[in-house]
Amino acid sequence: MQTDSRSSPIRVLAVDDHPLLREGIAALIGSQADMRLVGEAGSASEALKKFRATRPDVTLMDLQMPDGSGIDAIIAIRAECPGARIIVLTTYGGDALAGRALKAGAQAYLLKGCVRKELLETIRKVHGGLKQIQPEIASELVCHLGEHALSVREIEVLSLIATGKANKSIATILSISEETTKGHVRSILSKLGANDRTHAVVVALKRGMIGP
Questions:
Q1: How far is Cα 87 from Cα 98, in angstroms, rounded to an integer?
Q2: What are the tens digits of pLDDT across the range 97-108?
Q3: Which of 3, 108, 139, 191 is the most exposed place for a label (fewest CB within 10 A)?
Q4: Long-range pairs for 53-56 at CB < 8 Å and ≥24 separation?
Q5: Do 64 and 100 have their domain in common?
Q6: Do the beta carbons of residue 173 and residue 160 sit within 8 Å?
Q7: What's the 3-state SS for 84-132?
Q8: Residue 48's CB: how many other CB atoms inside 10 A?
């Protein structure tokens, strides 16, 4: 005899390093008859362990955690369970970060400021096999389609610029010549349409290319 899937609550795992946010999510989900919070994880390293232990229908994943990236956790979970349904919950709306999360296998991208209004419906949609991206983030993604992405080395250089490092120091840290470093900086400015190094850092932070 076949079971009506609607009679089984949607099993949700929440991954976020902020206990207060997890408490809020637990209260929100606990108020719904068709959902149940089956587990919580407070770090990227704990995410895969809790996923294995609970096998949730939907996982809520923060992207920035002290011990690692939520994107790496998404990749690890999807490698073990290609059908895993994951919703990114983040404070960062940058198109580059959103693009990486979606490429890693997330089905939805939701800003934490919209959790109370949109989370429950997003969980239902993703559980039903749909994708969900907030209009402003989708607009940013479309806006930057076709642009040349920064290379891994350019992101390394830009991350060091963001910490205040000069070209000479960057060259030493990355074991490249100062001239090569200057070439990377020129390429970064061109790709980001930035006026100078500081402007490049501001643009990259806004778009989620480098961490805050």
A1: 11
A2: 888 899 899 999
A3: 3
A4: 54/11, 54/13, 55/11, 55/81, 56/11, 56/12, 56/13
A5: yes
A6: yes
A7: CEEEEEECCCCHHHHHHHHHHCCCEEEEHHHHHHHHHHHHHHHHCCCCE
A8: 19
pLDDT of residue 119: 94
Of 105, 120, 143, which residue is a domain's last?
143
Please report which confidence band the pLDDT of residue 64 belongs to, taking 50, 70 and 90 as the band edges. confident
Place of tokens 């993703």: 126
- Find the largest Cα–Cα distance for the chain: 71
β-pairing, 132-133 vs 68-69, is: unpaired
**Residue 187 has which token pair?**
């390429």
Burial string for 164-180 (b: 16+ CB within 10 Å, else e) reads: ebebeebbeebebeeee
Q: Which domain holds residue 85?
A: 5-143
Taken in order 86, 87, 91, 97, the sign of the CA dihedral is: positive
